[in-house]
Amino acid sequence: MQQDILAVSPHLDDAVLSAGGHLAALAADEENWVTVFTVFAGLAAPPYSPTAQRLHGLMDLTGDPVAERRAEDLAAHAELGTIARHGRFPDSIYRTRPDGSWLVGNDPTDEPDGDEPELHRSVVAAIGRLISELRPAIVLTCAALGGHVDHVRTRDAVLDAVSHHPGVRLQLWEDLPYGLWAGPGGQPSVLPHDAVPGEPFAVEVSEEAREAKYRAIACYRSQHRMLWDDDPDYRARLGRHDAANGGGERFWDVAFSRAGVR
């Protein structure tokens, strides 16, 4: 029986880094169609924020930065056997506040305060349309470990959208590389919509699926210096982390209380 699976990724690389082995294994089953929708993959035009300019230099992106990263993403998902779809919403480094100031300041590690209600509504609508189109049995997204604003926006929008589709199973993945930096034991923060995460569990990844994940990670050339500069052997780092998590990638099932479903 054919089963559609939808993974919702904040950025171009997050789903692969965090759940690429599991997604590759799911896609290897010819009964499954696995779609990965990246929310913050929208094209951006100059002028760029100071943060964006510094990151472009770090990533060695000399042309259209988002187009280059989208091309990397398509190559990565070809390795996994998954279907890549790109959202129209710009990354936080390209967004502005209502007063026109940049959302993220001069330090790319800064996390902006406040909500973006219009953005939330638009992302919820886009995800809701995908759920209605694909009718997935399972939706996966990030747990937002590390608190990056785009991860939080993505997770909360997915929770909102899925709360309107009873019967759809929702799982959160452990955000990597944030989980590497935090070590084992990280937990999702309090979730909106009275959503409750279950106990964490590891999905064992076969050697074949693991190799597909590593090949996919290699496609994100622009990200390697930023992600792995202190220890470029990401295979060993991810392998050690999987072993510490019980031999695989880490997830949480999410349940909604009846009061939280609108």
From TrEMBL:
<dbReference type="Pfam" id="PF02585">
    <property type="entry name" value="PIG-L"/>
</dbReference>
<dbReference type="GO" id="GO:0016787">
    <property type="term" value="F:hydrolase activity"/>
</dbReference>
<protein>
    <submittedName>
        <fullName>PIG-L deacetylase family protein</fullName>
        <ecNumber>3.5.1.-</ecNumber>
    </submittedName>
</protein>
<keyword id="KW-0862">Zinc</keyword>
<dbReference type="InterPro" id="IPR024078">
    <property type="entry name" value="LmbE-like_dom_sf"/>
</dbReference>
<keyword id="KW-0378">Hydrolase</keyword>
<dbReference type="InterPro" id="IPR003737">
    <property type="entry name" value="GlcNAc_PI_deacetylase-related"/>
</dbReference>
